[in-house]
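Appendix B: complex inputs.
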Amino acid sequence: MKTWNRRFGRGWFMRAVLGALLATAATMANAESQTLRFGVLNQRSPQLTASYWNPILEYIGRRAGVTLVLGMGKTAPETTAMTLRGDFDFAFTNHLFTPDRDKLGWQVIARPKGDPIIGEIVVMSDSPHRTLASIKGQEVAFPSQEAFVGYQVPMDKLNKDAIQIKPIFAGNQEGAMGQLRAGVVAAAGVNSKVMARFAEREKISYRVLWRSENFLDIPIMAHPRVPKKTVEAVRAALINMANDPEGMTVLKEVAEIIKQSPPYGFIAAENRDYDNYRQFFRDSSL
Amino acid sequence: MTTTVNSSETVASDEAQDEVTEPLQATRGVPLVSRMSLFTRLLLVSGLVLLLGGGSMLVLTTNHDVETAQNNLKTQLQNELGILAPLIADQAVLGDYTVIDQVMRARLSDRNVVSVSWTNRKGKKIEVSDAESYSSVPTWFSQFVGLQSITGNKPLIVGGLNYGKLEVVLSPTVSRQDIYSAFNQNLFVLGLALGLNFILLMLVMRSVLRPLADLRRGLQQIGSGNYGLRLGVYGPPELRSSMGEYNRTAQTLEVLHNTLSEQRRAIEHAAMVVETDLFGRITYVSDSFCQLSGYRREELMGRTHALMKSNHHNADFYRVMWETIRNGQPWAGEICNVRPDGSAYWVYTAITPFISPQGWVEKYVGVRYDITERKTAEIELVRARDQAEAGSRAKSEFLATMSHEIRTPMNGILGMAELLKDSELDEMQREYLNIIQSSANGLLSVINDILDFSKMEAGRMQMVNQEFDLNLLLQNVLAEFKLRAETKQLQLQMRMADDVPGIVVADPIRLRQVLTNLIGNAIKFTSEGFVRVSVEMDLPTARGPRLRFIVADSGIGIAPENQARIFESFVQEDGSTSRNYGGTGLGLAICQRLVTLMGGNIHVQSRQGEGSAFSFTIQAETPQLALVGHGKQILVQQHDLTSRRMVAAMLERLGYEVKAVASPDEVRLSLERGHYNALILEVDVTAKDEAAKWVQQLPDSTLVIGVRTADFTAEDARDEATLPGVSLHACLHKPVRQSDLEAALEGLV
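Resulting structure:
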């Protein structure tokens, strides 16, 4: 004891208490001021993306006791690259289900409410192309090579059907839709939800040449380095957001920006909910 | 000769302009504007209008440009912010500062954008700016337009998150430069417009001033008396019209001038023309007047007519003449002037004042005729007339004297012959005595005719109108011829129309003379049948009743060819008449003159062998008398019954109580028996002294009026107003007239 006392003396205890207090205070302070970067896959322009996500992140951050800062690259591949590089703590992406990326340890924590997403190959209503085969040899716009239902699923279908096309990458979903509307390309590979909203907003009509199986919408994933508590706090905030009047208000406001249809909010999701993604990547011809 | 001025003959415009502006140089003291030429005025006015209009437009345009530039800058600023904000916002979301810098620098390519900056939410500022480009805009213009740099900023809030603030600064330099360039262009256009205005105005004025200069020259020619100039018609329509009017006016003036010149030449051919100014100074004189006056033209010009004044006219003559013409009235008269050699000449002068349009006399124009010969003849005539009148007076006096001198012995002869008749005479002696009486009466008649005719010829015969009883006069006249008519066994008849007044006013003596003559002729030339005297009313005149007397007979008549001549002097129907019937041939001539003097006329209707009818009229007057003598008594003494009754009748008509007596003895007896307010006494030349004796005994209150006998001479008349020792109140002449009586009795009244 003496030794203990000698080693530490009466001041040891005090120092320990003080250290614990300081550590607790530091932890608390660290938790209160922790800034986490939230990467969003490029589906829209950065400004539109920010307009949609910033109010949500502000609400979620406030509820979860963290500061969530929106982050994205100029393009979806750049954003994916940033994600893979570990620039984000959370990510709204479905680019992490390939076998190699699956090993990075990202965990699905939630996903937007609503129908699953479907990949589609669409043409304008007045287009002469009425079958998938007819677009052979034509230029077809895609958001990017990383776009799951926008490129990878349709392109896999085209490859498997041996329909050679000239892919044009527009950078994001609406970019590809914009090129289709402008007549620059004969067809476009799109996310069915994003295309429907785009057509409603821009008042255009289009024809679906091919439709994929259902895939759950893009999930929100957490980097394995984010403390579990924080992850849970964020997940809870996400899931409860639609139940909170304030959260619902935010959701409705941002939904109006991108003409999003109800239901609004997020629900809990897990990695296994996205096994068909993983299956696709294992069987993909790409 | 008519000449025409064409545009090609006109002087150059400068000269024309000089001519037009020439009078201006002589108008010193006149306001500057009044001295400005038409060209200068138009140039000033149009230039001022252009300058004001253009200047205002320039200012307005510049202001509008400035306003537009300001609005454009504001709009551009909003656009810049609107465009840049999403671009910067995108990159701000991504955090790509490089792209932000590139985007901002790209905006500097716009000339108006001089600075773009973005300050992120942490306060870091990224700014790109460009140096102000060089501006050639002068400071005064910059101050005038007042454009300033404008700055705009916009916060970049995306999804409720502030991504910083965007700020853009726009410079007005380029806009100012553009405005300045536009200003200079407008200024150049304004200057160009002013220059064009000057050139075009000069061209227009040249086209206007040339005709005006020609017009002026034409008017100068007219002003100097040359009406032959005709102008070529050119230039603007208004001036072409004016030049045409000028030519027509000049043509009219030339015709008028030629006409006037011809008329003047004609006048000067027949008369002399002298023009003077208001002061009588000669300004024009015709050659004919120079010739008549004996002066050269240069001697007369500028001188007055006093140079030629004679002493023939008095000062009043000239005063009246000047007063007349100075009042603007024409004057005409005969003036005697003298030549330099002193000889006199007469001119009939008609002076006409020329009145200006303003109403005052400008000059006098005298037209003169040489009347020297006529005046000389007139003077000679007057002299001859005076001489003739003197001769006539001498003749009348001679005849009067002679008649008196002849009638006195004739009275003696007749008186003695009458006395002889009462003596014892044998038949032969009595026959001789009758011949003596007849010859003496014939001689007396001839003498009386000659005396009357001489009086009438001398114009000294005057009618003495008085009131008389026409019926009585006719009866007396017929009574004279009663014996002769009975001797020839002729019926002597008298007819008087009922409407003929009994009392008329005329000259009873001359009426009686005419009737006596005509009745005498009728009896003379009628051997059987009748002689009839009729009186009737002729058409009345304003003066009163007009009486027509007709003496008709059944005598030998008068041949038609002689009827017009028988009233001429010394004319009888033919030579045999005088031989067969006697007479001087003066009777009817005297009758005609007497009838004319009595306001009537005489003519004859006759058929040879059947008789004649002499008809004459006289103008009588209706007596209008006032009863002024009521209650007064007058004693009248006249030897002759007719005179006595006539005077008494006149007095009674005046209301007097009259007692008429014949002899002085009866007067004396009447005066002894009663009182009379007046006494009218016949003054006998031979009984003047006797009458004076008892008249002197009358009281002073009794008026004494003398009536002289017809045979009083001029010498007797000198004493007519007096009797020896007696002062007569008045003296009347036989035949006594009503008016004379009234005048003489005025004192009594």
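Confidence is low (pLDDT under 50) at residues 7-25 of chain B.
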